[in-house]
Amino acid sequence: MTDMTEPPEEAHEWEREPDSSDSMRTFGAVVQALREHAGLSRVEFGGMVRFSHHTVASVELGRRMPDKDFVERAEGALGNTNALWKAARHLTRRPGLAAWFREWARLEKVAATLGTYECRLVPGLLQTEAYARAAFANRIPPLPDEQTEAQVIARMERQRLLKERPNTEFSFIMEEHILRRGLGGIEVTIGQLDHILDLATLRNTSIQVMPTFSPRHAGLDGPLSLLETADGRRLAYSEGQENGRLIASPKEAAVLHQRYATLRSPALSPLDSVGLVERIRGAL
How many Å apart are CA 50 and CA 31, to the nearest integer? Predict the structure, then answer.
């Protein structure tokens, strides 16, 4: 959640929580009731808590998870009744995609082009269900069974994009060592390699492998996801160990798009990449 320095109004829709929950809607209703009881408009209240009226509206409508600063400032502005702190203890999001990734997943559904560079594991849009389960099974600390199942289902649902959006251009670059790692065992790996070869035949999908020996490499800062909207706006997404960041700044996004374009040059061509995947598959 951002403060009064947040980006223009059109960015607010991108930053909302795509999957609300009953607790978020209940918390929002409490905020709205207390605000209206105090005789404050959203603009007035937003000025008091140092969040825009757009953010206030998103919280009140249950579309946005309030952070600690919002709860604390709202409590002070609305009489310190402790009602908001008590309500905040019960706030939960719907299970599935990681909270910080949900907004990017929503943007993927309307993108004109999508590009992904991965150095850790097969990109989520290319994973088989067995590979995804193996990836989640390696999380430390271990995930509860319910959460694992929800995340696998959400990941499989995302993959419908590849075939449901034939006019969207998808490109992927992944490191060679990912294909050789054997995550999940031989059978899972074989299934994953076969799946990659199958997806590589889609007309709107380009898959490139970055060879292990590569004197030039523009992706040393880690994984990278990029998209371009139908109106030409470029966005990026960067993910760390336990968080992710949607990058809407035109200047910063332009740098990351440039890095991705540079990465495609030393990577194997799509045709040569398919040949490498076939050789790795044949050696198993």
Answer: 15
Helix axis angle for 129-137 and 186-199, nearest 10°, is 130
Q: Locate tokens 């959203």: which residue?
A: 42
DSSP per-residue string spanning the chain: ---TT---GGGHHHHS-SS--HHHHHHHHHHHHHHHHTT--HHHHHHHHTS-HHHHHHHHTT-S---HHHHHHHHHHTT--SHHHHHHTT--PPSSS-GGGHHHHHHHTT-SEEEEEESSSS-GGG--HHHHHHHHHT-SSPPPHHHHHHHHHHHHHHTTHHHH-TTSEEEEEEEHHHHHS-TT-HHHHHHHHHHHHHHTTSTTEEEEEE-S--S--S-TT--EEEEE-TTS-EEEEEE-SS-EEEE--HHHHHHHHHHHHHHHTTSPPHHHHHHHHHHHHHT-
3-state SS record for 121-168: CCCHHHCCHHHHHHHHHCCCCCCCHHHHHHHHHHHHHHCCHHHHCCCC
Reported as a single tens digit per residue, the pLDDT across 198-243 is 999 999 999 999 999 999 899 999 999 999 999 999 999 988 776 7
Non-local CB neighbours of 31 within 8 Å, separated by 6+ positions:
56, 59, 60, 66, 74, 78, 84
pTM of the model: 0.67
How confident is the model over 171-183, as pLDDT tens digits? 999 999 999 999 9
Structural contact between residues 98 and 124, judged by C-beta atoms closer than 8 angstroms: no
